[in-house]
């Protein structure tokens, strides 16, 4: 390990539960509607009263991806504790285990967060720390909803700006014809959601080698990223009983850290606590700060990217199916002006020791240039035909 990239402070946190900032109110229906809207997930069961009532649940419930919206750190908190002097951080991926219960209006969600491990490798950024931590989401009944193991990527602050690809400073220009073609491709996946509705997708009817329908959405913009930001409940003033964060202990450069989510400053000058405009998250919306950490222009949120994966797979599974496990490795950002394209292939079918009939898939996320944004695998439980 380089002398000026000392990660040893992380050892002081491993295996120890962290503090958690609880929601002040129970989950509301519009929290769920705002989430699916922001995540580009037009599944009627999660926002339309008539379809929710006619669904397999008989009421409005949140999509599987919603758990992360209830956390005060976008799922990254247990993967970024520990002081690394003059460092930056990116969300590098996550692994999810879903236990079954859905979040619904009236629920109060608790997250037990435990830093897990870390390793240091040489990358294009120089010495780089890959740090992991667990988020364990449960409801007021004590039911376990999901476990998320997040990965953060931490590297020297000076290395960020050196890695900016200047060729990507400008957004792509889309012709009217290209936008129309993209809209048709986007709606094809929406139509799949509508056609499946509350019907079963049977495990028996899926074969190894099957391709899941592509999902296309975008072009992304500062407006769409800001909409995503506001769908994370913590990012609206006063919604969480924020615990005092040790900003120095988090190890970001002080210039970038600011007062994001600082409960004391929230009562004095809330603008300074809003990560959309100040603090380490502002690079998502402002090219000046994006370039300081190695991004050419405004870029999307890692937590959103993971949610896109979950929504894509659970939307295909339908109301009678469920994503039970997934891995997402983030390889490149969603940049302003770019389009996101998701595909997946069935690689295996199995029955696990719980008797669940599983479809194994390999999923991929790219942009319109073919640049890989995310890779991973997942297991999806589907119903078996009776008889």
From TrEMBL:
<dbReference type="InterPro" id="IPR029069">
    <property type="entry name" value="HotDog_dom_sf"/>
</dbReference>
<dbReference type="InterPro" id="IPR039569">
    <property type="entry name" value="FAS1-like_DH_region"/>
</dbReference>
<protein>
    <recommendedName>
        <fullName>FAS1-like dehydratase domain-containing protein</fullName>
    </recommendedName>
</protein>
<feature type="domain" description="FAS1-like dehydratase">
    <location>
        <begin position="19"/>
        <end position="147"/>
    </location>
</feature>
<dbReference type="Pfam" id="PF13452">
    <property type="entry name" value="FAS1_DH_region"/>
</dbReference>
């Amino acid at each position: 390990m380089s002398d000026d990239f000392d990660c040893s402070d992380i050892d002081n946190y491993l295996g120890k539960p962290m503090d958690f900032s609880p929601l002040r109110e129970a989950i509301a229906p519009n929290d769920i509607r705002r989430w699916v809207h922001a995540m580009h997930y037009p599944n009627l069961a999660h926002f339309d009263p008539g379809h929710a009532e006619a669904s397999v649940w008989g009421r409005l419930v949140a999509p599987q991806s919603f758990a992360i919206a209830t956390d005060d750190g976008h799922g990254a908190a247990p993967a970024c504790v520990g002081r690394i002097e003059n460092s930056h951080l990116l969300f590098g991926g996550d692994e999810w285990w879903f236990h079954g219960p859905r979040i619904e209006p009236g629920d109060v969600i608790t997250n037990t967060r435990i830093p897990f491990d870390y390793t240091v490798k040489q990358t294009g950024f120089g010495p780089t720390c890959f740090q992991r931590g667990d988020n364990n989401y449960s409801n007021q009944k004590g039911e376990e909803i999901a476990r998320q193991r997040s990965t953060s990527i931490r590297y020297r602050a000076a290395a960020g700006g050196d890695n900016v690809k200047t060729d990507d400073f400008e957004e792509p220009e889309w012709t009217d014809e290209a936008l129309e073609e993209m809209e048709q491709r986007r709606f094809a996946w929406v139509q799949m959601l509508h056609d499946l509705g509350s019907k079963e997708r049977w495990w028996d009817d899926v074969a190894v080698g099957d391709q899941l329908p592509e999902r296309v959405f975008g072009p992304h913009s500062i407006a769409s990223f800001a909409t995503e930001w506001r769908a994370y409940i913590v990012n609206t003033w006063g919604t969480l009983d924020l615990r005092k964060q040790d900003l120095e202990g988090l190890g970001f450069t002080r210039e970038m850290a600011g007062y994001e989510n600082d409960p004391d400053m929230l009562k004095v000058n809330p603008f300074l606590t809003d990560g959309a405009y100040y603090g380490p998250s502002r690079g998502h919306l402002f090219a000046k700060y994006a370039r300081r950490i190695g991004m050419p222009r405004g870029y999307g949120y890692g937590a959103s990217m993971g949610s896109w994966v979950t929504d894509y797979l659970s939307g295909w599974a339908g109301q009678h199916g469920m994503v039970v496990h997934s891995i997402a490795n983030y390889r490149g950002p969603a940049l302003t002006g770019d389009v996101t394209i998701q595909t997946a292939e069935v690689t295996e079918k199995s029955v696990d020791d719980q008797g669940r009939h599983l479809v194994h898939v390999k999923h991929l996320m790219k942009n319109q240039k073919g640049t890989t944004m995310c890779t991973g695998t997942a297991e999806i439980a589907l119903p078996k035909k009776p008889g």
